[in-house]
Input
Amino acid sequence: MSVVPVADVLQGRVAVDSEVTVRGWVRTRRDSKAGFSFLAVYDGSCFDPVQAVINNSLPNYNQEVLRLTTGCSVIVTGKVVASQGQGQSFEIQATSVEVTGWVEDPDTYPMAAKRHSIEYLREVAHLRPRTNLIGAVARVRHTLAQALHRFFNEQGFFWVSTPLITASDTEGAGEMFRVSTLDLENLPRNDQGKVDFDKDFFGKESFLTVSGQLNGETYACALSKIYTFGPTFRAENSNTSRHLAEFWMLEPEVAFANLNDVAGLAEAMLKYVFKAVLEERADDMQFFAERVDKDAIDRLQRFITADFAQVDYTDAVTILENCGKQFENPVYWAWISPLSTNVTWPKSTSKRRWW
Output
């Protein structure tokens, strides 16, 4: 007898008639008049729970099994058999059920077996990973991260972990979160009356990183091909779906590469990770397609099968000019010096448009 994840049982990686133990949490309990109870037990290893069939002959059936509610922690031991019902191929005929954690008041337990709104889940952050939605998101994020590391390793890249606390403003175009141990109610001042950061922890101003790019570039000039992948922080107070104060960012850096090399790398990487998600997290993606975004699977499949179009900058401006649409902001052509953020307009015309 061995402890196995629920995913191994449901996906047929455990032999029929073998004795196994699964550990997890009760999602639902149904009782039959024929003297059986059916527990849906999940452990987060996959989207679906496994059904455990429990006979009323178990010693703790009346005292414990019939008291189980959503959220209780259990250890179920039994035989893997082909399921007689619909919805899954295998189930467990339980020979023992050990209750390791009770929900003291089921009537006030915040994670009832129903669909909850995102707004509600924010109020119960300690329990929301147990929901279908947040559990699926966590597994997909895991698969994305693992696929990214696999892809770059197969391409001969080295992963470089860059500092989260830095004195550098790598991007130079955004607000940064300050890191300080100074007493905000009694800030030290210098002779000019400004905050004396010489007294701070690092002896200078320090911030949360906005990018690992600068560190990555130095390593690329020694290791040829590297990538950074880690937390990034931006202090722009923009409350939209396209702005985050904290997120994970991937930044490859390649020596001796041109624009076509970089574009090809980006296309290959996206197709690789999307394919991994569709293959390894099919159950979670099916849930997203049914409950969150009906085009979630089709969109990723189109990414995988389609070629990425590459358009010259000037051609892109021309396409936008001739598309017949009125944009909120005018489309202009301009040249931006790589050494500055100043826009230089061509002398030949003042009407060239920049998008």
Residues 73 and 100 are 5 Å apart (CA to CA). Residues 347-355 have pLDDT under 50 and may be disordered. The radius of gyration is 28 Å.
